[in-house]
Amino acid sequence: MADDLPLEHAWPCLMAQAQDGDQRAYRLVLRALVPVVRVRVRRRIFDDVLAEDVVQEVLMTIHRLRHTYDPALPLSPWVSAIVSARAVDALRRQGRSRGREVNDEDMLGAAVDVGASSAFETMATEREVAGMLSILPERQRQMVEMVKLREMSLDDAAQESRLSISAVKSLLHRAFLRLREHGDQTHG
Amino acid sequence: MVDHDALIDTLCHEASPVRRVAPAWRRALAWAPVALGAGYLATQFIHRSGTDWAGPMAGIAAANIALSLMLGLAAFIAALSVSVAGGAARLNLFIVAGAASWLSLALYSISISGHPRGELGHGSYCFTFVLAAGIPMILVTILALRRTRSLTPVRSLTLAGAGIAFLSFALLAFCHPIEMSAMDFMGHLGAGVLLGAVTVLLGRKSIAA
């Protein structure tokens, strides 16, 4: 399969054809870019799951910004700038979410209302859901939370996360696959 | 390793023909007159006294206008250039020399003033004028930057804000005495910095790629 991929000197021409609406050329150049993007992302991000998420975001950004590429110039610097920006965004988001996490078990225990025993069942369910969601990368978890837990429409979720509807669908699809795999592993 | 073919298929399916963006300098030349026109119209509601073009110092005013326009346009080109992935803002010798000349002219205008230091509140008219001229330019600039969006919105908007400030200074120079006090000059700069900050705040989300 890799032998079918176009060489780097052909990318600008293929991208120019893609800008003109040639879907075959677009597919070829995107598929050729995936391994290059992956290598560049992994130079910055060591978490495999997060790295693959960033690869996906890079592909979506390339799609949104494809009209800004000048075919007279090489494609690599343009793609590198996108990779760099998306990797930095992902690392920032990861840093922010880690900063929000609470690890003080004593404080959490003290905060529990002892009169709320009737709600234990609900809490157990919530904990189970939270546990399941915690295996997901941040973007996928956000999408599941928005669409399934907060019952937002795909349109609203796409708007809030500034992604296209197809990107939201793709993130959800990958999240469910991952959850199913996790379920199979845990329950045999 | 994750297979991204499903996503690629979706993206290809959505891939309609797109209109390529023109080079930054050409887009800046198209948008700058729109921004200047909007700024000019906005200042029509403010009292204006014309520059004395027959006076001995008219050359200073003309040089000030030319330098402000040039710097404004250069910053605008840089903003549009940086907004494209992989684009760079080239701060060449020409621009550095222009900025140094603009500052020298301002210092000269202060030095020939009867009250070089000025008084508190002295530059309030100029401050209002620069803001009135710059605010519609902000909207025009954000509209221009939305075409490409930006991977580094704060950087693009900071450069755009500098461009807006200089274009506003150019409009101000048409109705400003040649002499000015330091306080007046600080008012000009303060308004310019405020325009830059408002540009970043207003545009950060709407132009982010």
TrEMBL record, chain A:
It holds the Pfam family Sigma70_r4. GO terms for molecular function: DNA binding; sigma factor activity. The keyword DNA-binding applies. GO terms for biological process: DNA-templated transcription initiation. InterPro entries: RNA_pol_sigma-70-like, RNA_pol_sigma-70_dom, RNA_pol_sigma70_r2, RNA_pol_sigma70_r4, RNA_pol_sigma_r2, RNA_pol_sigma_r3/r4-like, WH-like_DNA-bd_sf. The keyword tRNA-binding does not apply. Residues 31-96, 133-181 form the RNA polymerase sigma-70 region domain. Signal peptide: none annotated. Coiled coil: none annotated. It comes from the Bacteria. Keywords: DNA-binding, Sigma factor, Transcription, Transcription regulation. CDD domains: Sigma70_r4. Belongs to the sigma-70 factor family. ECF subfamily. This is RNA polymerase sigma70 factor.
Automatic annotation (TrEMBL), chain B:
The chain crosses the membrane at residues 28-47, 53-79, 91-110, 122-145, 157-179, 185-203. The keyword Transmembrane helix applies. Keywords: Membrane, Transmembrane, Transmembrane helix. Signal peptide: none annotated. This is DUF1109 domain-containing protein. It comes from Novosphingobium barchaimii LL02.
